[in-house]
Structure formats: C-alpha cells, structure tokens
Amino acid sequence: MQQINLDQTLRQLNEELREKTNELREKDEELKKRETEVSEINHKLNEHRVTIPKLKLEVSRLRNELSKVQNTLRTTAKEHSQLTH
Hints:
1 helix
C-alpha cells in the first residue's frame, strides 16, 4: 500500500516537474525574444547617437554658409544701390 502511494506521489511530482519545466522553457523563449528586441533597439539607438551629432554639425555648417551668402547678398545689394543712386 505504501509503495503504491509512493509511486503515485512520485508520478504526480514528475508531472508537476514536467509542467514547471515547460513553463520555464516558454518563459525562457519569451525572454530571449525580448532580449533580441532590446538588443535591436539598443543598436538603433547607438546608430542615432552617432548620426544626430553629425547632423547637428552639418546643420551648423549649413547655417554658417547661409549666413555668408546672406552677407554677400546684402553687400552686393548695397553696392548696387549706391551705383544706381
């Protein structure tokens, strides 16, 4: 009788262990997927960290160029105005 109870208990514990193991596998797979997603997001963020400063430098350079062109146009307009009056 005790042997039967022990066998039943052992089977039940084994089944519970299988269920928990399966649950853990599923959770592990989900974690791996999330880790991959996070890794991809971090990679994109790192790319942006490099790109944004480059873009800021380019914007600054273009503003300087624009300022030079505007100054040249003002000077040319003044010279033209003086010549026509």
